[in-house]
Write a structure and sequence with these properties.
With about 230 residues, the protein is α/β, with parallel strands linked by helices. It is built from 7 helices and 11 strands. About 25% of the residues are buried.
Amino acid sequence: MEASAMARRLADRGLAATLSYMGRVERPKPQPIAVRIGGFGGVPGLIQYLTDHQITHVIDATHPFAAQMSSNAVAACAQTQTPLIALTRPAWQPGPGDDWQRVPDMAAAVAALAGPPRRIMLAIGRKHLAEFAAQPQHHYLLRLVDAPSEIPPLPHHSVVVDRGPFSAEADEALMREHRIDLIVAKNAGGIGSVSKLQAARALHLPVLMIDRPQLPPRHKTHDPEEVLRFVTA
């Protein structure tokens, strides 16, 4: 969401820019600037791309959990002396009425689900679904942007294919329909998917919240206007 909004701002300013997708979404949104899809081939590949395309600035607007890409960007920009700025989302914070258990990573989230069967909304995308097969006793509700190409490796599950942003009312209805007992979520921040936390609060449901990964030091901001000032200075 932040990358798309930033692409529009760059286009409105008439700045030459390319938006790079990793390629995990089958139907990416149309963009007002050039688009490339696919990885770079680690730090060496990104260095080669920056050099070949004479890139003058890099904006890291990746998902907060895309730790490898963000780390590679820091390393490649340092080696090529390319100015880098990260456009980030403020992390979610628990508020009155929230019942959160925070865990440091995906492995800890899987371990925290030990115990009797529950009905769990697994709001983590599709990349890490296989890890939860280690807790096969639960029924998992999976909400995915695209229909899975293979059956998820979870003995008991339901799949909802939908693309945000979502409303708290719709998420509350979804959780009631599937009789959800617990939500597992990554602390992505932003407004596009906060509705599940609002619904959990309204229904008094616990949330297992996975903290963001640690990243190397970098220049970062939550303000798109600061990014524009950075790339036009």
